[in-house]
Amino acid sequence: MPEAIDIQVLHELDHVAERELNRHLSIAKEWFPHEYVPWGQGRDFAFLGGEDWVPEDSKVSPESREALLVNLLTEDNLPGYHAAIARIMGHEGAWGQWVHRWTAEENRHGIVIRDFLTVTRAIDPVLLERARMQHMEIGYAPDHDDKVLHGLAYVSFQELATRVSHRNTGKASGDELCEQMMQRVAADENLHMIFYRNLLGAAFEAFPNEAMKAITEVVKGFQMPGYTIDGFLRKSVAIANAGIYDLRLHHDDVLMPVLRKWGVFELEGLSDEGEKARIELSEFLANLDAAATKFEERREARRARIAARA
């Protein structure tokens, strides 16, 4: 059962959800997954008399291959995300319309990435399918349960994190068409982020203390939705070492831009509890910044050692 504050937030932000939905529909561009797939490169696998995948088939870098795998498996868990966000926002009015529109747009991402990877043989399709089955059997359960403010805070950061990851994965692939495809997917993620970010921005005006507490808890416990992927930690390290998504990007390009947009450090009139949450947030960000710097230094030292041996 939703708590009283969640019902109040949904009611208070109803007009904002309608406004943001209309804004999104007015600027979102229609696009078609099949146009980004080089179908002419496709050929049959052994089941139909062709040849099964071998590592030499892949033309993308090993790091971007890991990133593409993680990105696609993350998109695959869409049924779980839909269920979670529908529980928070419901199925009525602008909230419900957004949930379904968002789901439809997100579904295109899994379609186009899977078709591209299969046709170009960038990833072993057998490995990919087994990983998909394993990941989806685990499902998805958000850490914030069905709390509206926590949910809005999480997706504000998560959509931007996904945009950054998709764009950098495309760049690292060394494949012009792959980069173009990932840019197209990232553009969707950016519009989704703006929808959620603007909603929570409005929530700060009506519920400043509750919103501050929510974003602090979300930032401190943030995990990407693909964290249940088998071998996620190892893959994340490889992705971070390649500079596709690391602590520095998370701090500088994801957390800080959204927090600045909300004006969390300039907000006045907070209660003691709200101010305490803001102090916790500041301290956490400082520690994250220090950890990001340490990681960067270690990565550069490792690269220097590799270059020296070469």
UniProtKB/TrEMBL annotation:
InterPro entries membership: Fatty_acid_desaturase-2, Ferritin-like_SF, RNR-like
Key words of the record: Fatty acid biosynthesis, Fatty acid metabolism, Iron, Lipid biosynthesis, Lipid metabolism, Metal-binding, Oxidoreductase
Signal peptide region: none
Needed cofactors: Fe(2+)
PANTHER family: ACYL- ACYL-CARRIER-PROTEIN DESATURASE-RELATED, STEAROYL-[ACYL-CARRIER-PROTEIN] 9-DESATURASE 7, CHLOROPLASTIC
UniProt record similarity statement: Belongs to the fatty acid desaturase type 2 family.
Subunit structure, as described in the record: Homodimer.
Protein name: Acyl-ACP desaturase
Protein's organism: Actinocorallia aurantiaca
